[in-house]
Design a protein that fits this description.
By secondary structure, the chain is α+β, with helices and mostly antiparallel strands. The chain folds into 3 domains: about 110 residues, Butyryl-Coa Dehydrogenase, subunit A, domain 1; about 110 residues, Butyryl-CoA Dehydrogenase, subunit A, domain 2 (Beta Barrel); about 150 residues, Butyryl-CoA Dehydrogenase, subunit A, domain 3 (Up-down Bundle), CATH 1.20.140.10. Helix content is about 50%, strand content about 15%. Strand 2 and strand 3 form a beta hairpin. It binds flavin-adenine dinucleotide.
Length: about 400
């Protein structure tokens, strides 16, 4: 039987994270929108410790509560993440990304790291560096190299737009062992942030998420221990095995794309709530009970935006729930990322429009939310790339057949 209500345990997590966002993020949201390239906000450090302490221990994607019936449906790390991320991004998406806690690199280590790697790096703040000046959407085109030299790997190349790349403890870096072998030779490596071979080139000035650091990093004969490769260092010898190996690397995105979709849910919901407050002061109250014939154009617009948010939320929950229950969810992960990313952009900009000068002015957070929402439709795979992935699934075509 389908049940679309969140269970009590998740509602408790939702309420706790909401409190954190309301009291910890919102009061400093505008302050840190105006501070770019600073250190990690001091206010975030105790919050990060609280989150680490509250994080469910030993529960991974696909696992339910201890002692639970193994055949019962599970609400594991993915759904918990979705609910928490929506709440935190309702507070402030840039501040959430600046928390010295879980970065994208942590998701990769959790997905494919060894027990030792999880032990050593699991509780640190790990960024993820895939994008390069010549490789964005086409991540298989990366040119950063890794070569084996005795007991070490040696990395050379350049990465750009690495979230948390300046302030993190370690970076998970994608590099190729042999460019001629294409995707199959791409592996990821854990590079501690203080490694002398990895240098900070610059941090970007940005339209939104200003407090979150976005770094360009250079790797110059960067040496790391041999056991810092994530997963197997072997290059598969058959075409089918090579395809499978890169597919395994890409599977991290099946977990992280719904989390990014949840960022859009939080940002859009914040914008809608602020809009309703502003409009209520002007005498426009959307109570959802009037027929369309008796509603104003503004009320109808609000209903449409609320419905769009709810549709994106249901798709996101579904993709995360499938991951928790061990179901293949690549299509659903891309669908929810595409839907929520677009919804976040449309809802926040419409909210600015509905509130007129109050929407555009810095007196309220609406203009900031519109700026912050844009990137959610870009990183972790753009809107167009998500649509391409969905099309491949629906048409049964490979990435070579549909580019
Ligand atoms: C604030 C910020 C934080 C980021 N954080 C990280 C991070 O932590 N780690 C990391 O590795 N990267 C990160 N990125 C990079 C981000 O993932 C890339 O910007 C994104 O993947 C798009 O790549 P690109 O910018 O090179 O655009 P391109 O790939 O050059 O694409 C440009 C445009 O063409 C479209 N396009 C490309 N190919 C196709 C196609 N086949 N069909 C249709 N349309 C297509 C794209 O959708 C896009 O609209 C971040 C970026 C930003 C701005």
């Amino acid at each position: 039987m389908i049940n679309l209500e969140l269970p009590k345990a998740l509602r408790n997590i939702q309420a706790m994270t909401h409190q954190l966002a309301e009291q910890g993020f919102r009061p400093i949201s505008r302050k840190y929108d105006r501070i770019e390239h600073g250190d990690t906000p001091a206010e975030l450090k105790p919050l990060a410790q609280m989150i680490a302490a509250a994080r469910p221990r030993g529960r991974k994607a696909g696992e339910g509560a201890d002692g639970a019936d193994p055949d019962a449906v599970k609400n594991g790390a993915n759904l918990i993440g979705i609910v928490s991320v929506e709440e935190m991004c309702w507070g402030d998406v840039g501040l959430m990304l600046s928390l010295p806690a879980a970065g994208l690199g942590n998701a990769a280590i959790q997905a494919v790291g060894s027990a030792e790697q999880k032990q050593q790096y699991g509780k640190l703040y790990c960024a993820m560096a895939i994008t390069e000046p010549g490789a964005g959407s086409d991540s298989a085109a990366i040119t950063t190299t890794a070569r084996r030299d005795g007991d070490e790997w040696v990395l050379n190349g350049e990465k750009i737009y690495c979230t948390g790349g300046q302030r993190c403890d370690a970076v998970v870096v994608w590099a190729t062992l042999d460019k001629a072998l294409g995707k199959a030779a791409i592996k990821s490596f854990i590079v501690p942030r203080d490694n002398p071979g990895m240098s900070l080139v610059r941090v970007e000035d940005k339209m939104g998420l200003r407090i979150s650091d976005t770094a360009a990093l250079a790797f110059n004969e960067c040496r790391i221990p041999a056991d810092h490769v994530l997963g197997s260092a072997e290059i598969a010898d058959t075409e089918a095995a090579r395809k499978k190996a890169f597919g395994g690397v890409m599977q991290t995105f099946d977990n992280t794309r719904p989390q990014v979709a949840a960022m859009a849910l939080g940002v859009a919901r914040a914008a809608l709530e602020i809009t309703r407050e502003i409009l209520e002061k002007e005498g426009v109250k959307a109570d959802f009970s009037k027929s369309p014939y008796n509603s104003t154009a503004t009320e109808l617009e609000l209903y449409r935006l609320e419905a769009d948010l709810e549709a994106a939320r249901l798709m996101t929950y579904k993709a995360a729930w499938m991951a928790d229950n061990g179901q293949a969810n690549s299509k659903e992960a891309s669908m929810c990322k595409a839907k929520a990313g677009r919804m976040g952009n449309e809802v926040t900009l419409k909210c600015v429009a509905l509130c007129g000068e109050a929407g555009y002015s810095e007196r309220h957070l609406l203009e900031k939310l519109a700026r912050d929402s844009k990137i959610i439709d870009i990183f972790e795979g753009t809107q167009q790339i998500q649509q391409l992935i969905v099309a491949r699934h629906l048409l049964g075509l490979s990435s070579r057949e549909l580019k």
